[in-house]
Amino acid sequence: FPVTIRNGTAFHTLVLEPHEFDNRFIVIPDVSFTTKEGKAYKEKYSDCVFADEKDRDSDDGKVVVIKEPDYEELQNLKTGLLVGADGRPTKAAELLNQPGDAEAVVLFTYLGVPCKIKIDKLLAEDYHCLDVKTCSSCKSDDFARASYDRGYFIQQAFYKLAFKCLANAEVKFTFLAVEKKDNIWLSQCYNTDLWDMKAQALIDYYLSVTYEAMKTKIYSTYAGHDQQGIINRQGCLSWRNVNEHD
């Protein structure tokens, strides 16, 4: 089941803010939009965006229309995250059921650059950040590779940096990962604490570049910047050298 950006947002809402789902999403039958019935839905919800449409900058704040099969798969995905094969709550469910704030926004400044993070759930008691991820495989090595390829390890370090800057507080961080395999939903919890040094090297580099751009008003993309080269200059390890996973 491919989780698109809009379906991913729907999944996060189902898991983190289920009371908000009906305010943000509309579920319709599995119709073809080339048929008379489908065109009628398009007209009825012309002020909304449809989950299978191309993303647009004007999507923000609009209600999203998703089809029933996708909604059912998202519900299955939620169940797989929260309920184990033995019918008991998963570790992810135990963490998500703790008191805290969903979609918590934190603002801070680092190296002169205004920064903003949005935490899936921030647990109240011990500065514990939870981040929900869908993945193709929950196996430790596979998730480690995905963490490197998609920058999850940088996200974790950046979130932890926010609380260090604001309150000099140490933060826990846990990824709640869920996958579908052979019609069975599987979930696992991970963090990438061992990669914090490597992530910090990238954060310092890219935010320094951003700060200079803010001063000079000369902006460019990061294309051509060698991420592994930046990491290696700091004496950090590649993902293949990290074989321990919490």
SSE inventory with pairings:
Layout: H1 5-16, H2 21-24, E1 25-28, H3 36-44, E2 49-50, E3 64-67, H4 68-82, H5 91-96, E4 100-110, E5 113-123, E6 128-134, H6 140-150, H7 152-167, E7 172-181, E8 184-190, H8 196-216, H9 227-233
Parallel strand pairs: 1-3, 2-3, 6-7
Antiparallel strand pairs: 4-5, 5-6, 7-8
Helix pairs in contact: 1-4, 7-8, 8-9
Tags for this model:
alpha/beta, five-stranded mixed β-sheet, three-stranded parallel β-sheet, disordered C terminus
Would you give an account of this structure?
The chain is built from nine helices and eight strands. The protein has helices at residues 5-16, 21-24, 36-44, 68-82, 91-96, 140-150, 152-167, 196-216, 227-233, and strands at 25-28, 49-50, 64-67, 100-110, 113-123, 128-134, 172-181, 184-190. The chain has a five-stranded mixed β-sheet, with helices on both faces. Helix 1 (5-16) packs across helix 4, helix 7 packs across helix 8 and helix 8 crosses helix 9. The chain is globular and about 60 Å long. Mean pLDDT is 84; it is low at 235-246.
Could you provide a short overview of the structure?
With 246 residues, this protein is of the alpha/beta class.
The overall average pLDDT, rounded, is 84
Q: Any idea what the radius of gyration is?
A: 20 Å
Total strand segments: 8
Order of secondary-structure elements: HHEHEEHHEEEHHEEHH
Spatial gap, N to C terminus: 27 Å
Approximately what portion of the residues adopt beta-strand conformation? 15-25%
Q: Considering DSSP H and I runs of 4 or more, what fraction of the residues is helical?
A: 40-55%
User: Sheet with the most strands?
Assistant: 5 strands, mixed
Structural class assignment = alpha/beta
Neighbour order of strands in the largest sheet: 4-5-6-7-8
Report the oligomer.
single chain
